[in-house]
Structure formats: C-alpha cells, structure tokens
Amino acid sequence: MEFFEPVINGFGVVLEPMNLLYCLLGVMIGMLIGVLPGLGPAATIAILLPLTYGVEPVTAIIMLAGIFYGAQYGGTITSVLLRLPGEASAVVTVFDGYALAKQGKAGTALGIAAIGSFIGGTVSIIGLTLLAPIVASFALDFGPPEYTALALLGILLVATVSNGGKLKSVIAAGLGLLLATVGRDGFTGESRFTFGSLSLADGLDFVPIAMGIFGLGEILYNLEQRHNKVQAPAKVANVWPSRQDLKQSSGAIGRGSVLGFFLGILPGGGATLSSLAAYAMEKKRAKNPERFGRGAVEGVAAPESANNAAATSSFIPLLTLGIPANATMAIIFGALLIQGVTPGPQLVANDPELFWGVVNSMYIGNILLLIMSIPLVGIFVKILRVRAAILAPITVLITLIGVYTIRNSVFDIWLVIFFGVIGYLMKKFGFEPGPLVLAFVLGALLEENLRRSLLVFGGDAAGFVTRPISGVLLLVFLMVIFLPLIQSLFKKARAKKATNTDDPSRKNEKESV
Amino acid sequence: MFASKLTRRGAVSASAGLALALSMTACGGNVADSGAAADGSEFPSGPVSLTIGQDPGGSTDRIGRALAENAADPLGVAIPVVNKPGANGALATKEVAGMEPDGQNLILLNASLITITPLAVSEEEAVSLDDVEVITGISQDDYVLVANADSGLKTMEDITSADKKFNFATTGVGTGSQLAQALLFKQAEVEGTDVPFDGGSPAMTALLGNQVDLATIQLGEAMPQIEAGKLTPIVTFSEERNQYLPDTPTAVEAGYDVPVSQYRAVAAPKGTPEPVLAELKEAFTAAFESEKYKEFNEQNLFTPTQIDGEQLAADWKGYAEKYKALTEEYGVDLGGEK
C-alpha cells in the first residue's frame, strides 16, 4: 500500500484542471507536429521550452512529454495516407500502411495503429510505474564510476546504433564531445576555449544548441525541401478494424510493446530504433513474410506499438538517473533544469508529485490520443496544406524570442543562429544532429565523472572494473563494440553459402529525430 | 491550426512585454514622493531592476526575489528581477558595473565571487569590489561539514583520530565549500582528496550513497537530511553558531581558523550619487523589517544579516586577504593540481 500512495497522489496532480489542460495541449501539439513532416518532437520541444517557464514544473513536463508521445501517434497518419512519414519513427509504417491504404483499407491501418499505440504506451507506463522506483532505489549506488560507464555506453550507442551513416554519426558525436569541453574547467578553474569571453566561462548552454540545431536548423532545411509536396490524401473509411484484423495483429502489438519498452530504456535507443526492430522481428516470425510490404496489418501494428512504448520507457533513465536516453529526452532534461528540478536519484523520493504526476499524465494522454486520433484524422491531414512560408518565420521568431527570455542574453540569440546554420548544414550533408546533441550532454557527464572517479579512487583505474555496476556496464560497452565484428565474421562465412540477403525494411531508413 | 497555436502562445509573451512597458510608464508617474537625486534628476525614475548572476530557483535567486518583492513598496516603484547567470555572477556584475550610475540598475553580489573565486580563476575573470558601491549586506548562509550517519563520524576528533584518508565532496571549484574544507583539513592535518561536484545537491547525493566520506554544503540544503537523521553535522564554518543548528560547534570553536560563510549584498554601479544610495538603503531596511521577509528567511533557513555597505566592503576585503593569506600559509590551491 505504501508503494501505491504516491502513485495515487500523482493522479490527483494530473487531474488538476491546469495539468489536464496542458496534457491535452501537449498531445494535440504532438499529434500536429507528428503530422507535419520535418518538424520533429525534439525541435518542437526545444522551441516551446521557454514558454513553459511561467508554469509549474510538473505542468510543463506533462505538456512536453505529451508532445513527445503524441508525435508518435501523429506520425502514422501521413505514413499511411500520403506515404510520407511525419516522424522518423513512423518510417517503417509506410511499407504496409500505405499498401493498405491503396487497397482502400486506410481506416483499418489507422485504427490498428491507434489501438497498437495505445496498448504499447499503456504497457510501457505500467512498466515505468513498476520499474522506475526500483531503479531509483539502486540510484544511491550510482556514484561517479557508474555514471562514467553509463555515459561511455550511451555515447557509444548513440554514435553507432542510430540509423544514419555510422561514420557520420561518430563525427557528429565527436563534435558534440568537443563542444562539451568549452568553459571553465570544474576541477582546476582553468578556462578552456573561452577566448577571454565571460559569456563562455560556464561553457555552452544546452538550450541554445538544441534550439539552433533542431529548431532553426530544421526550419531552414525544410524551407528548402518543402516545395515538392502536393499529394492528394487517400480516402479514409471504416476506421474500426475488423475482428479478424485485430486478432491477426494482437500478437504483433504485444511483442512490439514489450520490445519497444526495453529498447526505449537503452541509451541511444528510442522510438525510431524500436519501430525498426519490431517490424524486422514480425517479418522474421511470420509464416509467409512475403505479405509484408503488401499490406500486412502486423506491419503497422508492431512498429506503432513499439515506438509508443519506447517513447514512454525512455523516461526511465532520465527521471531515475538523470541520464537522457535520446535527444528528445536531453531537451526535457534541459527543461527540468530550467524549472529548477534536477532529474536524478533523489527525484522519486524528494519530488514524488512531479514524478508521479508526469508518469500518470501519460495514461490520460494516451486515452486522449486514442479518442482524438480516429475522428480527427481529416483535420490533421488538412494542416499539411499550411504554407511553410507562413509557418517558418513565425517559428523562427518564437525561437529567438524564446531563447533570449531564458537568460536575458543576446549572446544566446547569436548561439542559436550559429547552431541553426550548423544544424542546417548537417542535415544537408546527411549528418544526424541527434548524436551531436546527446554527446554534448553526455560528454560533460563523462568528463566530470571520470575525473571525479579517479580522484575518489586515488588515481587507480581498477576501481571501474571491481565495482559491480560499473563493471557490468563496461562489459556491455565492450560487447557493443565487439559483437558487430563477430557477427560480420559469421556473416562473411554465411555469405559464401547464400549470396543474396536483401532486406527491404532497411532500404528507406532515414532519421530526422 | 498549428500556426494559430503558436501565435497564441507567442502573444502571451508579447503581451507580457506590453504589460511591462505599461507598468514602466505607470511607474514613471509615481515619483512625486521620492527625493531628488544629487544631480537634480528624480530618483527613482522608473522600475529599479535587480540583476542576479545566478540561475533562477537557487538560493541567491530566491533571496534576491524575496528582497525585491518586499522593498518595492517602500521604494514606490516595482523592482523586477533579471537573471543573467554566467561565470558565478561575474558576467552580471561586470555588466551592471558598467551601466549608468543612476541607481536604476542594481546587482546582487555573492561574497564568494569577491573573496574566493579570485583564488581559483585568472585575474581578468575576477571581479573587484572597487567597481561597485555596496548598498547593504543582506544575508549570511552558512556552510556545514556533514558525514553520512552510517559512518559514525560525529566530531572533528573522530576524523582526526581515524587515521585514514578521506574523500570530501565540495560544491565546486572556487566555492566557499571547497575553501572551508581544504583549510580545515590542512589545519587538522587530515589527509584528504577534494572532489568537486556541480553544486550542493549532487555532492549530497554522493555522500548519501557513500561515494565520498564527507561533504561541505550549504546549511539550507543539508538540513532536511540532517533532520531525517541520514547526515550528521560535524562543524559549521560561521564565526558564531548557526541559529538553526545550535548544538553544532563552529570550526573556530573546534580550534581551527576557518571562518567561511556565504554573504550576500546589494550593490549599484560605482559613482551612484549618495542620496540615491541612501534612499535605496532605506527601502531595503524597510524590507528587512517586514514580516513577510522574516518569514521567508525562517522557512529557508537563511540568516538575514543587515550590514552597512561600507562596513561590509571592509569586511569582504578583510576576508579576501585572510583567505589569500591562509591558502598561502597552508599551501591550499583551489585550482587543484595543475
């Protein structure tokens, strides 16, 4: 009973009218930007960050979280109707979703996606409710060495697991690590790369970087891309899937939810990765895999359940350890800091209302999304017609005013513009911004904790291996490095037997975070 | 629809700006009852802004906001608070020090910026009291040395007789926490490694998790865990016992010459006319006496200390010299091993 008391109090927090309103606002915005290709949840949250400044922390985070998982619902709609993934995490939904739409079963696809998303999200919240306090109870055992190992693992996964070009991701992550070194050294007081500017003495702030790279960079990039999109959306009829469709996809939904939950917790994981993995798994399990790509309901159900489950479970490392698992979580991390809340081991115990308020708001948010997503499909599709020429300048203006208001600093406006240009160039040349931003956050964490650990150990690095948690994490780190090498050796051996192993699910991979 | 939502939310901040502009003009008319400044112009000629060089939500920010709120009525104009965090307040201090000396722009100073930070950073990053006019001291926030209750350490004797090497957490390089602890252990001849954390909360978490043996953090932050029995207070670093921890001796009482506290003051740019300073001081004095401000300090375990500006400037310079002498005498290098 003791366990459930704060959980139930959390519902009390969510049901306050203000919080309900912001939850609704969040999922609506999320769904909208999910529909709009290009502008992702990371960008939107970065842009709206300063506007949450005036509200209570719990209210702000409820809204920002709503944007994140709401976008997972919205991204499906355009995938199915226009063959245009609104979100990176809905890329695989295109294959079977659009095929279903062409067969006149767009409604079925959307219905299954909505139900799958709802179940995936809900399963994941239940997992979060049960698992987060357990992780948090270990949290005091997480000292500098453990954080070092975790940050190391996170950077490695971010740089290698994300679906862009591996080399480019590593370069982007390397740049992020370099940016993290700017500022006064927290151990010696020495200034690094500040060029005598006091504005740089504390290092680069995370928010202008995120707002520049995700917000401004994406807007600039989209302006260039937009003009070539005029497509008539397919007609939507009978949104409710038939009993047979439901039966056929129930297994896929279940497996997708569980897979998504676990992949979401991993640093560098998240919605996009898990939707790809879930699709691949369903295809592997299917009796006749050739149905996939030609309108298999499982091909919609599995990735949609998985991406929603992952979006939710990626809150676990953030809220319990203070480690963001993906770029969007890094921005929510920034949002919490702005609100004066330090996410970390003490959060569940010291601020249960915030913690459970945010977690429980996701139940409500998912219900709202399920209700909204089906009848409102037509309206959302119309939004695609809003001209970029109108949308873009407004967004830019809000971004620049917003960043100024955080620290009343004109310097930060220049930073946003600078990183906006960097973000634009990165996208243009096929570099993912995600690894840069995440490596920037984790880089500071890595350096500080590595040096702190060595101080605590008295300079003896053996301590990293002998402490159980950091030892295990470092073992995983090594496995991540060497497993692909071993696998590729196996593959080479197998390739001699069968030459052709073409995988269509890997063809269209592309991520915009 | 997305666009309309964005504009609506945009309009909120726009209208806030408009409201501010309106309040500025409104307050502009409200100067009849204020005294005339030395150069003949009216003071205050509009809202007096108080710049805080720390992030919103921290203790410096909360003290500044509470003070501004309670001094606005006696002054007759609004005192909006502007946060310009950066370089431990050096950024904001340098900016305000360079503004017109008319009393319309004030800065909240942390003593550590003047007395301790220069020991850790290069000269051009440090700030001198000579660039500002100190109006009044406002509060004192004590540091306390704490141990995890499981360790059984209760007094300085427990530490000196333990004959082991201690890791001690500080709230960062160039802070009072680092200085106080480093000086204490040098004087007590305890071998220890100074492990800087990024603020009080992570330092305390590390201590609770037994990642380090000891930590020095600000009293307000440590108090909930001290009351919960998880942390044991060993000494405070103030010159007199702290009113909220009356049973804990000071380091001075324990026989060590380590008087370190976080003092805070309000200052104006150098050259601000005397009558303007006097009027500001009067307003802050009235704020100190208000019930609301007293309540705020008690709730947050701050010790309000109103010291005359000149006295305070002399005190801080004294501390700066003393710390410098002590660090040299005991070979403490706040910059760490370079």
Blueprint of the fold:
The complex is a heterodimer of chains A (513) and B (338).
Chain A: H1 4-14, H2 17-35, H3 41-48, H4 57-82, H5 93-102, H6 106-138, H7 144-161, H8 166-180, E1 183-184, E2 191-192, H9 206-225, H10 243-265, H11 271-285, H12 298-313, H13 315-321, H14 327-338, H15 347-350, H16 352-373, H17 377-383, H18 388-407, H19 410-428, H20 433-457, H21 463-466, H22 468-495
Antiparallel strand pairs in A: 1-2
Helix pairs in contact in A: 1-16, 2-4, 2-16, 3-4, 3-9, 3-14, 4-5, 4-6, 4-12, 4-14, 4-16, 5-6, 5-12, 6-10, 6-12, 6-13, 6-16, 7-8, 7-20, 7-22, 8-20, 9-18, 9-19, 9-20, 10-11, 10-12, 11-12, 18-19
Chain B: H1 2-28, E1 49-52, H2 59-75, E2 81-83, H3 90-97, E3 105-110, H4 111-115, H5 117-120, E4 132-148, H6 156-160, E5 166-170, H7 176-187, E6 192-196, H8 200-208, E7 214-218, H9 219-227, E8 231-236, E9 261-269, H10 274-289, H11 291-299, E10 303-304, H12 309-330
Parallel strand pairs in B: 1-2, 1-3, 5-6, 5-7
Antiparallel strand pairs in B: 3-9, 4-7, 4-8, 4-9, 4-10
Helix pairs in contact in B: 2-10, 2-11, 7-12
Question: Can you give a write-up of this model?
Answer:
- The complex is a heterodimer of chains A (513) and B (338).
- Helix content of chain A is 71%, strand content 1%.
- Chain A contains 22 helices and 2 strands.
- Chain A has helices spanning 4-14, 17-35, 41-48, 57-82, 93-102, 106-138, 144-161, 166-180, 206-225, 243-265, 271-285, 298-313, 315-321, 327-338, 347-350, 352-373, 377-383, 388-407, 410-428, 433-457, 463-466, 468-495, and strands at residues 183-184, 191-192.
- Chain B is of the alpha/beta class and 338 residues long.
- Chain B has helices at residues 2-28, 59-75, 90-97, 111-115, 117-120, 156-160, 176-187, 200-208, 219-227, 274-289, 291-299, 309-330, and strands spanning 49-52, 81-83, 105-110, 132-148, 166-170, 192-196, 214-218, 231-236, 261-269, 303-304.
- Chain B is globular, with a radius of gyration of 22 Å.
- Chain B starts with a helix and ends in an 8-residue tail after the last helix.
- The chains are: A mainly alpha (513), B alpha/beta (338).
- The interface between A and B is large, with 54 and 53 residues.
